[in-house]
Design a protein that fits this description.
single chain; alpha+beta; two-stranded antiparallel sheet; 24% strand; globular
C-alpha cells in the first residue's frame, strides 16, 4: 500500500517538474514569517555529501539562487507549530512518539516546488518528506531546470533519523539570525 502511495506521489512530482517553466516559479520572499516552532531531522554525512555535490553543480549554472549552507540542510518533521503551544510540556510526548520506532527516509529523486503551497501533497504527507537545498531568488534558465530533472532518479541515501532539533523561528530556511534552537535530542 505505502509503495503505491509513494509511487503516485513520485509520478505527480515528476509531472510537476517536467511541466515547470521558469516564468511560473514563485521567488523566495526573504521577509520573516510568523514566528513558529519547527521540528527538524539532520541528514547523515553521506547524504550531505551527495546533496553538496548537487548544490555545487547547480551553483555553476546559476550562483544567484539561494543555496542552503550545509549546516542548515534538514528534513522538516513538523513545521509551523504555533508558538502558543507549550512545546516544553509536549517535548516528552514528541520524544516518545519519535522513539517508538526506527524512522528512516529514502532520499530519492528531486523536485522543484513552484510555491509554498503544499496542499497538493496532503494525501501523501504521512509518507514523504524532503530536504530543501535551495530556494529561487530569481527566475532560473531552462538549463538549470534541465539539470534538476537530470537528478530525478538519484538516490541520495537512506536517512535514519538519529538527531532531532526543535527551533523557534521566523525563517523559512532556519537562518541562525532568525532561529533559536530550543532543544535537540538523539534517537
Amino acid at each position: 500500500m505505502e509503495e503505491k502511495i509513494i509511487e503516485k506521489f513520485r509520478e505527480s512530482s515528476l509531472d510537476q517538474l517536467k511541466a515547470l517553466k521558469a516564468a511560473d516559479i514563485v521567488l523566495l520572499d526573504e521577509a520573516p514569517i510568523q514566528e513558529n516552532i519547527t521540528i527538524v531531522a539532520k541528514p547523515p554525512k553521506e547524504s550531505i555529501k551527495k546533496i553538496s555535490k548537487l548544490i555545487s553543480e547547480l551553483k555553476l549554472l546559476d550562483s544567484n539562487q539561494f543555496f542552503y549552507p550545509v549546516e542548515r540542510l534538514h528534513l522538516t518533521i513538523l513545521g509551523n507549530i504555533p508558538v502558543t503551544v507549550d512545546i516544553k510540556s509536549h517535548l516528552q510526548s514528541i520524544k516518545s512518539v519519535l522513539m517508538k520506532q526506527e524512522i528512516a527516509f529514502k532520499l530519492y529523486g528531486i523536485g522543484s516546488n513552484q510555491a509554498d503551497n503544499y496542499s497538493r501533497i496532503l494525501e501523501f504527507y504521512e509518507y514523504v518528506g524532503w530536504i530543501n537545498y535551495m530556494r529561487y531568488l530569481e527566475q532560473p534558465q531552462q538549463s538549470f531546470l534541465d539539470k534538476l530533472f537530470a537528478y530525478k532518479d538519484t538516490v541520495f541515501g537512506v536517512m535514519p533519523v538519529s538527531k532531532v532539533q526543535i527551533f523557534r523561528t521566523t525563517s523559512k530556511t532556519i537562518d541562525s539570525q532568525q532561529s533559536t534552537l530550543i532543544s535537540e535530542f538523539d534517537l
